[in-house]
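STRUCTURE:
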């Protein structure tokens, strides 16, 4: 269900970024180190490639965990 390519990323790379972003154990900094994209680009990839409802739930979860953990996403 990958909709858009960002920064010439392959569909496999986008899929890997989505998997990493959905994981509670992988920070935005780790994704940035692997793919040289910032948190805004990660959010854009997520918004463009997963359903709107899933995106909203993911952002809500990231915000909730960020408030509890100092070094979360």
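SEQUENCE:
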């Amino acid at each position: 269900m990958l909709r858009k390519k960002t920064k010439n990323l392959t569909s496999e790379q986008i899929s890997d970024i989505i998997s990493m972003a959905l994981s509670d154990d992988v920070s935005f900094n780790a994704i940035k180190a692997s793919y040289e994209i910032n948190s805004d680009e990660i959010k854009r990839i997520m918004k463009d490639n997963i359903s709107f409802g899933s995106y909203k739930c993911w952002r809500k979860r990231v915000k909730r965990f960020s408030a509890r953990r100092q070094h979360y996403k």
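REMARK: The mean pLDDT is 86.
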